[in-house]
């Protein structure tokens, strides 16, 4: 087993080996009871949480926060690989080799068509290939690899590769992106705006009829509206998950500022007249840069 003391952590490889060693010790019979109880299923929530914490660090622009969160994110990968190693399936080295092989194999414009993951040909000129052509090449190589593997072909459709476990807004974005590549696409962004207006009108009818009376129909119309908004976001080149996260953060910042302003005068938000809260809300907006 690789020693886990701090003095050995010199190179990147040695630091990674130290992390793997620590993970092995935590899972050993005399290790940590909590770590020993975990399974791939129990780690799902932590993988998701760490993913969003990495996104928060990216949005903050704080390199120290990003460094720490990437470490936590990497630990989840090592943890899952350790569980697989204990089950006799694969270890983290196999996972690393697989991604190295895949990246080299699917970038022949960079490494050369005969390169392998262990011995890539570095420094190949990229030529005139565009990022769009790179994506098409990636998909073509992926399909060829599947055919050459001897595995039974998957019953794949255009949308089958979009994971159902994605957050709903991100999945809507990915689904509409895949569909658009087939030509099933709005001609102009303005056309999507028109569609959104139609969905709003239909939802308004449900509200007027009493949304709680037929909650299923109201939910259906709300879903159509949200999907159309995700479509417009994609059409405008805006990643909707990021846009919504920023809007939510903006609301949180202003609402908290409003609450604190009233609290400074010994007043709580609950029970305050709405017009007073709206006036303070506008003051909070004006305090922000660019407003």
Describe the SSE topology.
Elements: H1 12-27, H2 33-37, H3 40-60, H4 63-86, H5 92-105, H6 108-111, H7 131-148, H8 168-181, H9 189-209, H10 215-235, H11 240-263, H12 274-287
Largest sheet: none
The residue fraction in helices comes out at 55-70%
How many independent structural domains? 4
Ends: how far apart?
58 Å
Category by helix and strand content: mainly alpha
Task: Describe the protein in words.
With 291 residues, the chain is mainly α. The chain folds into 4 domains: 6-98, MazG-like (Helix Hairpins); 99-148, no CATH class; 168-238, MazG-like (Helix Hairpins); 242-287. It contains 12 helices and no strands. The chain has helices spanning 12-27, 33-37, 40-60, 63-86, 92-105, 108-111, 131-148, 168-181, 189-209, 215-235, 240-263, 274-287. Helix 8 crosses helix 10 (215-235) and helix 11 (240-263) packs across helix 12 (274-287). The relative contact order is 0.05. Mean pLDDT is 87; it is low at 1-5 and 119-124.
């Amino acid at each position: 087993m690789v020693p886990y003391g701090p003095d050995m952590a010199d190179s990147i490889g040695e630091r990674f080996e130290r992390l793997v060693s620590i993970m092995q010790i935590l899972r050993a019979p005399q290790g940590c009871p909590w770590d020993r109880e975990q399974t791939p299923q129990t780690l799902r929530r932590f993988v998701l949480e760490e993913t969003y914490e990495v996104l928060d660090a990216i949005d903050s622009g704080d390199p120290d926060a990003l460094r720490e969160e990437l470490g936590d994110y990497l630990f989840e990968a090592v943890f899952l690989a350790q569980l697989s190693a204990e089950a006799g399936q694969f270890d983290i080295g196999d996972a690393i080799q697989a991604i190295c092989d895949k990246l080299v194999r699917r970038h022949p414009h960079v490494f050369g068509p005969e390169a392998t993951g262990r011995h890539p040909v570095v420094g190949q000129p990229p030529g005139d290939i565009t990022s769009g052509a790179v994506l098409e090449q990636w998909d073509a190589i992926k399909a060829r690899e599947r055919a050459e593997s001897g595995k039974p072909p998957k019953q794949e459709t255009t949308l089958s590769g979009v994971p159902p476990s994605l957050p709903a807004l991100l999945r809507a974005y990915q689904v509409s992106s895949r569909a658009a590549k087939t030509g099933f696409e709005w001609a102009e962004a303005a056309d999507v705006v028109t569609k959104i207006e139609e969905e709003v009108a239909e939802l308004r009818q449900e509200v007027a009829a009493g949304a709680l009376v037929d909650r299923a129909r109201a939910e259906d119309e709300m879903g159509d509206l949200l999907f159309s908004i995700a479509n417009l976001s994609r059409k405008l080149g805006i990643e909707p998950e990021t846009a919504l996260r920023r809007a939510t953060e903006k609301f949180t910042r202003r609402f908290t500022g409003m609450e604190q302003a009233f609290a400074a005068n010994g007043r709580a938000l609950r029970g305050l007249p709405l017009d007073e809260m709206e006036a303070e809300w506008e003051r909070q907006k004006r305090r922000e840069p660019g407003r």
